[in-house]
Amino acid sequence: MESITKLMENDRFAAFVGIELLEVKPGHAVAKMDISEKHLNGVDIIQGGAIFTLADFAFAAAANACGEITVAINANISYYKASGGRSLLAEAKEAAGSARIVNYKVEVFNEHRESIAQVNITGYRKKKSLDQ
Q: Do the record's keywords include Hydrolase (predicted)?
């Protein structure tokens, strides 16, 4: 688990936008982002890219927690509700996987546990250890 913690702490963009990893284990992760002015778009709602970044970070933590470098090769996001809340939470869960290809479902919620978005991500396991 030390390798995944170090990997996620080294994610400079996630740190820049204020993402915090709350929970991680192989195939599952939860991440949180407190919302500030910098996360809002021109119509004063949370920018879609900020929501996607949070979901992508949760996926990366869950998928790489197995100890092998796993990268996203496809992602599809559906936005359900504009959130004007104070924070967002993303929960990534492995839906299916093989030796090389994994599929994840990432749910994004506001602080009231209302569903904001869902991201389906396909990842590719590079067969390279995080420790290398």
A: yes
